[in-house]
């Protein structure tokens, strides 16, 4: 590849989240990792020795590096908007992980900065809405072979609230809790499958657990698309039950471990910072599960078990793809890497790359990211106000996707 075609990227936030996309960035010939930023020195030292790149103690300094063309932002949620605006003002292109901001005003300021500075923004980075399975499902729906889409039902039960968490991850005012952190996996998928335009949200949210008093651990939401298609959506991250047990090839991975984690949290004996650090970039136990995994079976994880209903059939996830139930019977559609990477990392990186180098239109642009953040915001608001919230910032899936 010609050297001027290679995109030079900087990574903001060398914690856990970046370990999910770094293997992809390392592998793709179109990308060169040249700089990183974090407020902790240790990951910067590892970063410099691993990539030969430059390490900075602030996102501002990273964005001022003239060699950096695009910034991958994986800092805590409360910094997303601020970091994205800094990058835009330095003329850098941006991949911003979900959520785009934690208020509609923050999202709007990011949009304005991106437009004012003429840079490209891919928002929503790396949710299950970009997975090979979701793409395959959309193809079946769009083909019309089962008739029009009529309903989507999703249930996720996870141990998210029991995992080691930094204070901001369990403080909703800083973008913590399952609505800000986990709902995008479901919402990006649903919006893609249903065409993007959610009309309204009625939701109930729950903070039941004394070990995490400031974080929403449960939500149940009823969404309606503009065309009337309903979505019923549940996420329970409190960690008593795991929806992996709802698929025949799954089973509950380790219920006793969750009991121990909760007991330690309740007793105030959990050292969460040390535990979280074990899986972060540069630590001996650095998470390598996403980039390396290829063909393991699909599991519900943060998306949950879901059934898509069309007029003439239902579709569910199987271990290796989709199972379709229609008027002829039941059949399997094998989807390569259905469960492996879990997320379509390459397609997302290349979506941004092609937008920058070939001026191709982005699907997951700032307006799309703001629309997903609006549904997250509406779930919280509807739970608080106990009424239906009408949405104003929705955008459709662009033609060709
Ligand atoms: N699959 C996914 O979509 C997924 C998975 C995990 C994390 N994430 C996202 O990644 C982001 C970070 O979460 P995490 O779990 O990796 O947390 P983390 O704490 O492990 O990582 C955040 C990193 O940012 C650094 N940091 C904090 N403040 C900073 C600042 N002001 N400037 C520069 N660096 C700063 C921290 O030191 C840390 O290394 C969140 O937005 C989260 O939603 C997404």
Characterise this structure.
With 401 residues, the protein is of the alpha/beta class. The protein has two domains: 3-128 and 344-364, Rossmann fold, CATH 3.40.50; 132-342 and 374-390, Dihydrodipicolinate Reductase, domain 2. It has helices at residues 18-27, 41-51, 59-64, 80-89, 104-117, 132-143, 177-181, 183-194, 255-266, 272-277, 289-292, 345-358, 366-385, and strands at residues 7-12, 31-37, 54-56, 70-73, 93-97, 121-125, 149-157, 198-206, 218-225, 230-236, 305-310, 313-317, 321-326, 329-334, 389-390. The strands form two sheets. It has a nine-stranded mixed sheet with strand order 14-13-12-11-7-10-9-8-15. Strands 3-2-1-4-5-6 form a six-stranded parallel sheet, sandwiched between helices. Helix 8 crosses helix 13 (366-385). The two termini are 27 Å apart.
Oligomer: single chain
The ordered H/E elements are: EHEHEHEHEHEHEHHEEEHHHEEEEHHE
Distance between the termini: 27 Å
Average pLDDT score: 94
Give the CATH topology of the largest domain.
Dihydrodipicolinate Reductase, domain 2
- Which residue ranges are poorly predicted, with pLDDT under 50 across at least 5 consecutive positions? none
Integer count of domains: 2
Q: Care to count the β-strands?
A: 15
- The CATH H-level superfamily of the largest domain is Dihydrodipicolinate Reductase, domain 2
Q: Percent of residues in helical segments?
A: 25-40%
What CATH architecture label of the largest domain applies?
2-Layer Sandwich
Q: What composes the largest sheet?
A: 9 strands, mixed
Sheet-strand content, in percent, reads 15-25%
**Main β-sheet, spatial strand arrangement:** 14-13-12-11-7-10-9-8-15
The number of helical segments is: 13
What ligands does this structure carry? nicotinamide-adenine-dinucleotide
- Helix/strand-derived category reads alpha/beta
Report the top-level CATH class of the largest domain.
Alpha Beta
Estimate the global geometry from the Cα principal axes: globular
Radius of gyration: 20 Å
């Amino acid at each position: 590849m010609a050297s001027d075609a290679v995109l030079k990227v900087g990574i903001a936030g060398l914690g856990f989240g970046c370990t999910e996309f770094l293997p992809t960035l390392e592998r793709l010939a179109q990308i060169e990792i040249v700089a990183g930023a974090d407020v902790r020195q240790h990951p910067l030292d590892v970063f410099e020795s691993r990539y030969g790149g430059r390490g900075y103690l602030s996102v501002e300094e990273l964005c001022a590096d003239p060699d950096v063309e695009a910034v991958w932002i994986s800092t805590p949620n409360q910094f997303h908007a601020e970091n994205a605006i800094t990058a835009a003002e330095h003329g850098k292109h941006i991949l911003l992980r979900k959520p785009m901001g934690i208020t509609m005003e923050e999202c709007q300021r990011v949009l304005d900065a991106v437009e004012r500075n003429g840079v490209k923004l891919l928002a929503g980075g790396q949710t299950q809405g970009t997975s090979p399975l979701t793409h395959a499902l959309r193809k079946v729906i769009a083909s019309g072979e089962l008739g029009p889409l009529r309903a989507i039902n999703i249930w996720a039960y996870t141990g998210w609230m029991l995992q080691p968490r930094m204070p901001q991850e369990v403080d909703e005012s800083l973008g913590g809790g399952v609505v800000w952190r986990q709902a995008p996996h479901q919402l990006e998928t649903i919006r893609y499958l249903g065409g993007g335009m959610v009309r309204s949200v009625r939701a109930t949210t729950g903070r039941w657990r004394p070990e995490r008093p400031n974080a929403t651990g449960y939500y149940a939401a009823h969404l309606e698309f503009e065309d009337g298609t309903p979505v019923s959506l549940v996420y329970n991250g409190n960690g008593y039950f795991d929806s992996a047990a709802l698929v025949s090839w799954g089973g509950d991975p380790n219920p006793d471990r969750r009991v121990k984690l909760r007991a330690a949290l309740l007793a105030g004996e959990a050292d969460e910072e040390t535990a979280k650090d074990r899986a972060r970039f540069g630590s001996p136990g650095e998470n390598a599960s996403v980039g390396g995994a290829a063909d393991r079976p699909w599991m519900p994880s943060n998306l949950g078990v879901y059934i898509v209903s069309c007029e003439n059939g239902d579709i569910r996830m199987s271990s290796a793809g989709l199972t379709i139930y229609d008027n002829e019977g039941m059949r399997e559609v094998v989807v390569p890497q259905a469960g492996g990477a879990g997320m379509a990392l390459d397609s997302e990186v290349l979506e941004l790359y092609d937008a920058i180098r070939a001026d191709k239109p982005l699907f997951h642009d700032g307006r799309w990211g703001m629309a997903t953040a609006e549904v997250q915001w509406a779930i919280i608001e509807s739970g608080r106000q106990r009424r239906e919230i009408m949405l104003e910032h929705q955008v459709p899936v662009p033609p060709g996707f």
